């Protein structure tokens, strides 16, 4: 006898407009024989609290026994789900109830079709690179974490710049007085790195990005390096003020002068559930509301060529 099917449902707890949609998802999945687990304490005070059709996720291993994590929310909720599923290999499927929603696979209007495809397992899996980060001070490890989008080293005070030395593959590159440095994956190239002036990198490109933030230097351009490069940032000992390292804007630790932060590709990617959808170019156009006025398209050009020949 086969094991019962089970998914983890992650819902933004502070978005009341999502809760009714979540109840509908739970009922339709249950009717199709798919059990739904939630993180109990995140559902307190919402219509999902105490629902008899819901299972309680294991507090230490929320994705245990799950074939999928379905997220109703924005990119922040998807990053939260990535934390919950870290190391499990369980794929994430995001339904956008936020603003841009670059990590989400579908929009809220596609929720009915999404439930049908979960039931029929009609999706593919795409792996996204992640980063490992370790911070040291005085020879001791003071912080270890990971990131799907980016690791940033930033100044802790608005009044002062921070002085950072950047190292690539064990060799010094430059020392900058700046607001910080972003080290990003291709997935994160459309997030903080993009806002800091970095390039958009297609998700199927194996590369790491390094983007300085407001650096006071002649050479302070975004860099794209190989996927196996070893990146390091040191807070110059004589710098005034301290810094902070952030992972995906969610996990952080303060950095005193002299701290060293090392970043490299992780062996543990995030797995995203994907429907057979539009190319990444179309996603950029949609999410950034880009103008494509004047583009005729290959089909239209072919039709015009046929008319000219006739």
Automatic annotation (TrEMBL):
Describe the reaction catalysed, as an equation: NAD(+) + ATP = ADP + NADP(+) + H(+)
SUPFAM superfamilies (UniProt xref): NAD kinase/diacylglycerol kinase-like (SSF111331)
Q: Name one GO biological process term.
A: NADP+ biosynthetic process
Question: What is the active site of this protein?
Answer: 75
In terms of one coarse class, where is the protein primarily found? cytoplasm
Tell me its EC number(s), please: 2.7.1.23
For the keyword NAD, the answer is yes
What NCBIfam families does the database record attribute to this sequence?
PRK03372.1
Q: What does this protein do?
A: Involved in the regulation of the intracellular balance of NAD and NADP, and is a key enzyme in the biosynthesis of NADP. Catalyzes specifically the phosphorylation on 2'-hydroxyl of the adenosine moiety of NAD to yield NADP.
From the Swiss-Prot or TrEMBL record, give the protein name.
NAD kinase
Q: Which lineage is the organism of this entry classified under, starting from the top rank?
A: Bacteria, Bacillati, Actinomycetota, Actinomycetes, Micrococcales
Q: Which gene encodes it?
A: ppnK
